Amino acid sequence: MRGAGCYFRDAAVRPGARVDPRTEFGSRSVVWWVNGARAFAEPRGVGRAWQACLIVSLRT
Question: d(Cα 49, Cα 24) in Å, to the nearest integer?
Fold first, then answer.
């Protein structure tokens, strides 16, 4: 996703709702989940020294 954007739209993601985000960081892929539904996956994966900085933007 380098330099790209990806939006997840679902009726469960709305003002006042609770969401359960989950991310799986693997050596061969990274997968994002929202409320148990797979939202996005990319095939690059992460290296051993990789660090994450979570940024969540919720807009209506």
Answer: 16
Contact, 5 vs 30, CB < 8 A?
no
| 33 neighbors 25 (Cβ within 8 angstroms) | no
E-strand stretches of 1-60: 21-25, 30-34, 37-42
Per-residue pLDDT tens over the stretch 4-37: 566 778 888 888 888 898 989 888 888 989 999 8
Which tokens is 10 given? 């679902």
pLDDT at residue 3 greater than cutoff 70: no
| Short-list 41, 21, 43, CA closest to 31 | 41
